[in-house]
Specification:
CATH topology of the largest domain: OB fold (Dihydrolipoamide Acetyltransferase, E2P)
CATH class of the largest domain: Mainly Beta
Strand order of the largest sheet: 1-2-3-6-5
Strand content: 15-25%
Number of strands: 7
Oligomer: single chain
Largest sheet: 5 strands, mixed, barrel
């Protein structure tokens, strides 16, 4: 049998080139893996830093005075609705018009909601709907802003106020426009009664809310 011929210079060169190409491929692959790993580590670190050091988006939600709220308005924290036109609240600080930080009962000027059930009276048509509407506009724990008119308190000791919620919505007017309340002229507190009455008239004409379901009851 004839022994194999020894590799020529040409063969050795081809083997060397093949080896170099293989090493280059391995090097590129290694660099790619290293780059991807570094990117994941950095991206994860960045996300962790954002969570640890950044403020949650809702941290100060509702604590800043919304656009449209009178500059003199006092901030209160809502404790819960009592009916469709009254809710309990606590002033953030004593001031004007409420000079205490104790809980108070706020009654909305210019509107009257259907009566909720009580010992001496039955529930009126649309009372539960009005109650839920006020709850949606002034959820428990949220901030509202209030101003008074000429007379601050009614004979029962409730505070008669105009109210804006944390979205800047004028609550008295919103309830009137939605058809949840009837007009209640609380003289001498009539500074905004014209706008409230216009909203109630529009709701009556469109038969919104109680005007469509309860008529003149």
């Amino acid at each position: 049998m004839t022994p194999p011929a020894p590799p020529t210079e040409h063969h050795r060169l081809r083997e060397l080139v093949g080896t170099l190409i293989g090493l280059a491929v391995l090097l590129v692959a290694g660099l790619g893996i290293l780059w991807a790993t570094k990117g994941q580590v950095n991206d994860g670190a960045s996300r962790r830093n954002t969570v640890v050091h950044g403020s949650p988006p809702s941290q100060h939600s509702g604590t800043q005075r919304p656009v449209g709220v009178p500059a003199s308005a006092q901030a209160l924290t809502v404790l819960g609705a009592r009916d469709g036109a009254a809710f309990a609240a606590r002033p953030a600080v004593a001031g004007s018009p409420i000079d205490t930080t104790a809980s108070v009962l706020v009654r909305l000027i210019g509107v009257a909601a259907p009566a909720m059930p009580a010992v001496a009276r039955p529930v009126q048509c649309f009372a539960a709907d009005a109650y839920r509407a006020l709850q949606r506009l002034t959820p428990i724990g949220t901030r509202v802003w209030v101003i008074a008119d000429a007379q601050l308190r009614d004979p029962d000791g409730s505070y008669l106020l105009y109210v804006w919620n944390s979205a800047g919505t004028f609550v008295n007017l919103a309830l009137a426009d939605g058809g949840y309340v009837r007009p209640d002229v609380m003289k001498p507190d009539t500074a905004r009664q014209g706008a409230i009455q216009e909203a109630i008239d529009a709701a009556m004409k469109a038969r919104r809310g109680l005007w469509g379901r309860c008529g003149s009851k």
